[in-house]
Design brief:
- The chain is α/β, with parallel strands linked by helices.
- It is built from five helices and 27 strands.
- The strands form seven sheets. An eight-stranded mixed sheet has the order 1-2-3-5-7-8-9-10, covered by helices on one side. Strands 11, 13, 16, 17 and 18 form a five-stranded antiparallel sheet that branches. It has a five-stranded mixed sheet with strand order 12-20-19-14-15, with no helix packed on it.
- The chain binds 2-acetamido-2-deoxy-beta-D-glucopyranose (6 copies).
- One 2-acetamido-2-deoxy-beta-D-glucopyranose (NAG) binds at residues 100, 124-125, 146, 148-149, 170, 197, 199.
- InterPro entries: Adhesion_GPCR_A (IPR051963), Cys-rich_flank_reg_C (IPR000483), GAIN_ADGRA2/3 (IPR058808), GPCR_2_extracell_dom_sf (IPR036445), GPCR_2_extracellular_dom (IPR001879), Ig-like_dom (IPR007110), Ig-like_dom_sf (IPR036179), Ig-like_fold (IPR013783).
């Protein structure tokens, strides 16, 4: 154990020493630096490797922070989103650059300038949609490129003209569209003896889904057949019920497969354009990351006339596709039942403002000591009330709810009991004792329940003795 500790300390010291000697300027949190010495033609060379993986980096740091003898730089699993012009200038010995699992969406022209010795570049699992040959200037010595796991669906012709030594290329993507726009790549790869790596399957069109790009023949890469959009969505997509005067933005987004893709809005089948008096504003289309196009439609001060079906239509050289949603505009004067407070023998219920034709529900009020009738069924008990088509409160039902008054609640329970010859006497005595204070009779239901119980008790009247009915009923106002 002691020996192991000592070994660790020594190993740590050695690493620090070698690090400080090879990377004197490396002061970036989360980076590790290692170096190897090589004898080459009786001359000592240092090969420095820098690993800054999972270091929460938002940006590539100044290349001058690294020793110019760095041969390997790993910046994977960070939060880098942009590669600026000359991001790595000065690292003229760099052979491997790993930028996988970042958030890179933009690579400026000349980003890799000065990396003449670079042989392996990993840009996989980023958000790259726009690609141009200028991004890859100076990478004449690159032999392996991984572009997999990005958001492009195609690669522009001539993209790899700066690569003179490329041997292997990976470019799988969830939306890779294997059509005539990728024919050039097959020809170029063949002419330049570039191997398309295994693990680069087509995603679209459906009949080529899952097939390796490398195994395709030129004639399979066609631009015929129906338009298939990897992405096409309308927000909101569900029917919207709005009040007159409201504002509602609608957003349509689709894959930007090629320059012929256009988005148009229509209302009940007729194309719409901006019309300020009607509160219709159709925004310009915006292309994001060269692979998605969005067009927004903003409806403001909505009038009844804007009810109906709103459609986003994608047109392209290969065909059209559309998606619709419905808007229902209600008059602000649409009939509704006013909010109302109802107090009855089940408690106090506050009914909210409710649209005509709608059944409103409220949960039953909880009462202390009230035992649920069916404890095994935990279903929430509710009262309901209908608002009719004219906006007047109509039928209502509180039967699921318990009586608010404890006296009524107990009488209700009495009334639910089975009365037979055995228990009639006892029940009669209990009822008599319970009801002997007239002041407690507060609800007409109390009288109804007592009458109901009495009727059933009277069937056993010959057995009921010595029960003195002292109760004097109050006269009940009939409502
Ligand atoms: C690398 O840096 C050292 C000094 O740190 C310098 O002497 C040398 O010329 C540099 N080499 C290159 C290729 O820039
Ligand atoms: C990139 O930077 C270099 C030198 O800093 C400059 O000469 C070149 O014009 C820049 N390129 C672009 C496209 O900005
Ligand atoms: C390019 O790679 C070859 C070996 O594949 C190497 O000899 C040459 O020095 C490299 N070029 C640069 C500029 O590093
Ligand atoms: C390329 O990147 C993808 C995604 O990170 C990965 O699955 C694949 O193994 C990589 N290919 C190579 C040869 O490194
Ligand atoms: C696509 O829509 C455009 C514009 O509405 C129309 O001119 C064209 O004929 C449509 N194409 C197909 C194949 O439906
Ligand atoms: C009367 O009802 C009670 C309670 O329901 C029961 O326990 C009793 O057995 C019944 N007696 C007769 C005679 O049915």
């Amino acid at each position: 154990m002691k020996l192991l500790n000592l070994f660790c300390v020594i190993a740590g010291l050695w690493r620090m020493l070698s690090a400080s000697r090879s990377c004197p300027d490396l002061v970036i949190d989360g980076c590790r630096c290692t170096s190897e010495r090589h004898m080459e033609l009786s001359r000592q060379t240092v090969r420095v490797k820098v690993v800054c993986s999972g270091a929460e980096l938002m940006d590539t740091f100044q290349p001058s922070f690294l020793p110019n003898t760095t041969v390997s730089l790993v910046l994977s699993h960070n939060k880098i989103s942009l590669l600026k012009n000359c991001s790595f200038l000065g690292l003229s010995y760099l052979e491997r650059l790993d930028l996988k699992n970042n958030l890179i969406s933009t690579i400026k022209p000349g980003a890799f300038r000065g990396l003449a010795a670079l042989r392996r570049l990993d840009l996989s699992n980023n958000r790259i949609g726009c690609l141009s040959p200028e991004m890859f200037e100076d990478l004449a010595n690159l032999s392996k490129l991984n572009l997999s796991g990005n958001i492009f669906s195609s690669l522009p012709e001539g993209l790899f003209t700066h690569f003179l030594s490329l041997q292997v290329l990976y470019f799988s993507s969830e939306s890779l569209y294997c059509d005539c726009h990728l024919q050039w790549l097959l020809l170029w790869a063949r002419a330049n003896a570039v191997r398309i790596g295994n693990g680069t399957p087509c995603a679209y069109p459906t009949h080529l889904h899952g097939l390796e790009f490398r195994s395709l023949r030129e004639h399979q890469l066609k631009c015929v057949g129906p338009l298939e959009l990897p992405l096409f969505q309308l927000i909101p997509s569900q029917r919207q019920v709005v009040f007159r005067g409201d504002r509602l933005p609608l957003q349509c987004t689709a894959s930007y497969l090629d320059e012929s893709v256009r988005l148009q809005w229509s209302h009940n089948g007729r194309p719409v354009s901006t019309h300020e008096q009607s509160g219709i504003l159709v925004e310009e289309s915006i292309v994001h990351d060269c692979c998605q196009v969005t067009r927004e439609l903003i409806l403001s001060n909505i009038d009844i006339g804007l009810s109906g079906h709103w459609t986003c239509l994608v047109t392209s050289s290969r065909g059209n596709s559309s998606q619709s949603m419905e808007i229902v505009v209600l008059e602000t004067s649409a009939p509704y039942c006013p909010a109302e407070r109802v107090t009855n023998n089940k408690g106090e219920y506050r009914w909210p403002r409710t649209l005509a034709g709608i059944l409103a529900f409220l949960p039953c009020l909880p009462h202390p000591f009230s035992t649920p009738q069916h404890p095994s069924v935990p279903r929430e008990k509710k009262a309901w009330r209908r608002c009719d088509r004219m906006g007047r409160w109509a039928e209502e039902d509180y039967t699921q709810c318990a009586y608010a008054n404890e006296f009524t609640r107990v009488l209700y329970q009495f009334s639910q009991m089975v009365i037979n010859a055995t228990n009639a006497q006892v029940l009669a005595q209990q009822l008599s004792a319970f009801t002997n204070r007239a002041a407690l009779f507060d609800d007409k239901m109390d009288v109804i329940f007592v009458t109901h119980i009495m009727e059933r008790l009277l069937r056993f009247v010959d057995r009921i003795q010595d029960v003195c009915w002292e109760t004097t009923y109050r006269t009940w106002p009939v409502t």
